[in-house]
Write a structure and sequence with these properties.
Beta-lactamase Inhibitory Protein, Chain:B, domain 1; alpha+beta; membrane; single chain; elongated
C-alpha cells in the first residue's frame, strides 16, 4: 500500500512540475495609439483650425471629456524583448483655433513598424507575388 502511495505521489509531483517548465513564448511588438513623428509636429502652427489639425495629425486618441480645449495624441510601443517607448503630444485650443503644443518623449527617433502582411497566417504553398489576371481569350472553334 505504501509503495502505491509513493508511486501516485511521485506521479502527481512530476505532472505538476512538468506544467511549470518554460520552453519559450513567442512575443511581438505591440504598437498602440497615434503614431506621432517630429515632421508632423513641426507642421503644426498656432492659429490652425481643428479640421486642419485633424487633416495633418488624424483624430486624437484622447479628447478631455470635461474640457473640449485639449486633445492628446499618444503613441506607445511595447517592444517584445525590449523596453517601452512612449510619445505624447498635447494640443490646446482656444475656441476653434490651436493655441498650444506640448511634447513628451523622443519624437525625433525613427520607429520601424513591421510591414503589413495581411490578416491571419500565411497559407502553405503560396507566394508573395501577385497573380496576373487572365486576359479575355476566346477558344478556337473549327
Amino acid at each position: 500500500m505504501q509503495k502505491l502511495t509513493r508511486i501516485i505521489t511521485l506521479s502527481l509531483a512530476l505532472l505538476m512540475i512538468s506544467g511549470c517548465s518554460y520552453f519559450g513564448v513567442y512575443k511581438r511588438d505591440l504598437p498602440q495609439g497615434n503614431l506621432v513623428t517630429e515632421a508632423m509636429v513641426e507642421q503644426l502652427r498656432p492659429g490652425m483650425s481643428r479640421q486642419q489639425v485633424v487633416d495633418l495629425m488624424g483624430s486624437p486618441l484622447l479628447e478631455a471629456p470635461f474640457d473640449a480645449r485639449q486633445w492628446d495624441y499618444v503613441y506607445r510601443l511595447d517592444e517584445a524583448y525590449g523596453g517601452v517607448e512612449q510619445r505624447r503630444v498635447t494640443l490646446t485650443f482656444q475656441g476653434e483655433r490651436l493655441a498650444g503644443i506640448e511634447r513628451e518623449g523622443n519624437l525625433s527617433s525613427d520607429i520601424q513598424l513591421p510591414e503589413d502582411q495581411g490578416a491571419g497566417p500565411r497559407v502553405e504553398g503560396t507566394s508573395d507575388t501577385p497573380i496576373e489576371p487572365i486576359e479575355n481569350v476566346t477558344p478556337d472553334r473549327p
